[in-house]
Amino acid sequence: EMQHAGIPITLMDFGLGVISFLSVAFGGLMIGILVGFLSALITKCTSDVRVVEPLAVFGMAYLSYITAELFHWSGIISLIGCGLIQAHYSFKNISEKSYITVKYFIKMSSATSDVIIFLFLGIALIKGPYAWETRFVLWTLIFCLLFRFTGVYVLTWILNRRRVRKVNLQEQFIMAYGGLRGAVGFCLVNMISEDIIKQKQMFVTTTLAVVTFTIFIQGGTIKALVNLLNIDKRKEDTKRLLSEEVNTSIMENIMAGIEIISGKHGQQWFW
């Protein structure tokens, strides 16, 4: 089916594709970071009108998305960049009530979106039509796993060179193995125009196969692997005494200063 998919792809096409990917990704990220800093400045001026703080946080996040989309850059990556800056700066400026409002609204929206997305995926799995290509499906799964593991191991190797607390091999394996692909890939493949790419159904079928494999096979075995590899699990948060909060805050500031002086990067490096 791929023999008549279109014109032959040249080396220049690959180069243009890489440049396009980098411009879309980094362009969206820069938009998100800039809007995130703007959000931090806005929330510094809301001490007298706390009620608008959640609206300011969500409004600026949406602004980063639509601005990136306006330039045909990645709105999703823009949201990630904006969220990173807001988490470190904007959330420090808003009141506790506003923070709780934002936190639980995001959790509620996330749960609702998950339900809708997987309901849509379930309908698509049953409805069809399918264009199954065994070799294409297998190679797609192999490359998804290969690039996922390569990306995780390379990035953690770079990160571990400057970290005090290293990310060990067991944790790296879990991060790589736990890469579940679903909503974004399925939405993107459904945006393909069948008038331009005649093999759209083959791509849709392959995407559904990857989603099914990662959710049921990888997702179903991840808990057993975490227990088998003795991965440290997050302990339940308990309320601490005021003295413990003060001591923790002092130690974090001291450690941040030591890390700056020593040139080592730990969990306080961002500050």
From TrEMBL:
It comes from the Eukaryota. Its main location: membrane. It is found in: Membrane. The chain crosses the membrane at residues 18-42, 49-65, 71-91, 111-130, 136-160, 172-192, 204-226. GO terms for biological process: regulation of intracellular pH; sodium ion import across plasma membrane. GO terms for molecular function: potassium:proton antiporter activity; sodium:proton antiporter activity. GO terms for cellular component: plasma membrane. Keywords: Antiport, Ion transport, Membrane, Sodium, Sodium transport, Transmembrane, Transmembrane helix, Transport. It is a multi-pass membrane protein. The keyword Cytoplasm does not apply. InterPro entries: Cation/H_exchanger_CPA1, Cation/H_exchanger_TM, NaH_exchanger. Coiled coil: none annotated. Residues 12-227 form the Cation/H+ exchanger transmembrane domain. Belongs to the monovalent cation:proton antiporter 1 (CPA1) transporter (TC 2.A.36) family. PANTHER family: NA(+)_H(+) EXCHANGER PROTEIN 7, SODIUM/HYDROGEN EXCHANGER. This is Sodium/hydrogen exchanger. It comes from Lepeophtheirus salmonis (Salmon louse).
